[in-house]
Structures are given as C-alpha cells and as structure tokens.
Write the structure tokens for this entry.
Amino acid sequence: MIKPVENYLYFALTGTAGDGVDDAVCYPASTFIGATWNHATKTILKFEDNTANTIDGATSKKYNDVVLTHENISGNASIHMDIIKAVAKIMANPGRGKVLTVVDTANGVVAEEFEALNNTTQVSCGTAFGITQG
Amino acid sequence: MIIIYNSNASITSTATVNAWQASGFRGMESSAAGTMTMTYPSAVNHSDAGDVVVATVVSSGSDDADRANRVAAMDAMVSKQNTVNKDGYVVAYSEIENVKPGGITGIAVTIDS
C-alpha cells in the first residue's frame, strides 16, 4: 500500500516532552475525527485510535484524545469555535509531509494560528494524552 | 476541510459545538415533518453509532412545501460539505455567528448515537 504524503500534527505537554510515555504525540492530519467542547476552558480534539489494526478490519471503539486548554468561555463566548478554526487552519497547511507544531507546552510554543487567542491565557496542553474508550 | 456546527449561543456541552471532517459526511435523511438528519462517523469511533445533526427546517403543514423546504436545506448543506477554501474550515450552522443557511432554524447534535 502506498501511503500518501501528508502533514502531521505535533502536541506536547509541559516538562521534558518526549521523555515519558505520551509526553508528546504526533498524528496524521487525516486521522482527525472531530472536536468538541470539553470544559469552559478546554476543547477536545479526537484522532483515530492507533492501537487497533483497523486496516485489517479490527473494530475500534477508542480514540486518541488531545485536550487543549485555553481562555475561559466567560471571557470569549466563541473561544471553542475559535480554537477549532485555528486547528483547521493548521491542518490546511498547503505543505506536504511536514510536522506542524500545534502546541508544544514544554517549550511555550504554539502555532501562529493561535496567536490571537493567547491574549489572556496561553493555549496549552495540560491534560495527559491518551487512548479513550469511546 | 473541517465542518463546524454550533447549536447554541452558549457553548456549555458536547452538543453545542462540534467539528468533523467534511469528507466523513454520510448524507441526509428526512426524519419528521420539518426536520432532516445528517450523519457523520462517530467522534468516539464507534462503528455502529454515528454522530447525528438533526436540522429543523421551516414546516408549513403542507407536504409539498415541506418537501421543498427540506430540499432547500439539503442543498445548502451539500454546498457546505463541498466548500473548499484555504482556511480549512467552513461553518455549516452557528447560533453565535448567525449562520443559518437553507432555511434551517435550529440544530440538535447527538454524538455516539
């Protein structure tokens, strides 16, 4: 099977990202399933489960989750939509085969698409990445 | 392309703001007088329980008018699904942004239906 060249999205927690299990994750943009509200200050991004061999027909009932922490909705009623739009813009990067840093909390780096959303609260990854049973 | 739905002016639950890959759109079905249901692959990856967006369209009481209104709503949603732009997203429906195409007056989202 020829795998198409595509962009990957990189996320990292605080601390020494990469030293521990799931300190940092990197998923193909095409495996993005969806996004929704998670908390007044959090938006959850869901990616396809990469632990089940779905190519061979295995049934997965899990997803990989990435939770972004951001400004409270009390300060911006559309913050969750704004975060989702920024992620969509990052995924629409016209490059191919790139690793796009979305949020690297360990190094205080966020994609420039988030810059306008960082005025009161830095967009960050404060919740452990993981595989969630759907 | 990412397609975004916002069902309520106050985003306080998983049913109030949702986004999916437009490529995952699985079509639309009439579901009652003045409603139609759109389906996406499950956000929690259940193979047998998709996510649904029920759109309310103008219902007149006349079958012919209902059909025409529903077709107008379906047409608007097809246009949204097929949108391509460099932003990478399209807002299909939003209470916050007052985006209400095709005569759709409201939506209700159920994930993992």
Notes: Chain A has a mean pLDDT of 88. Chain A touches chain B through 33 residues (CB under 8 Å). Residues 79-91 of chain A form the longest helix (13 residues). The helical segments of chain A are 79-91.
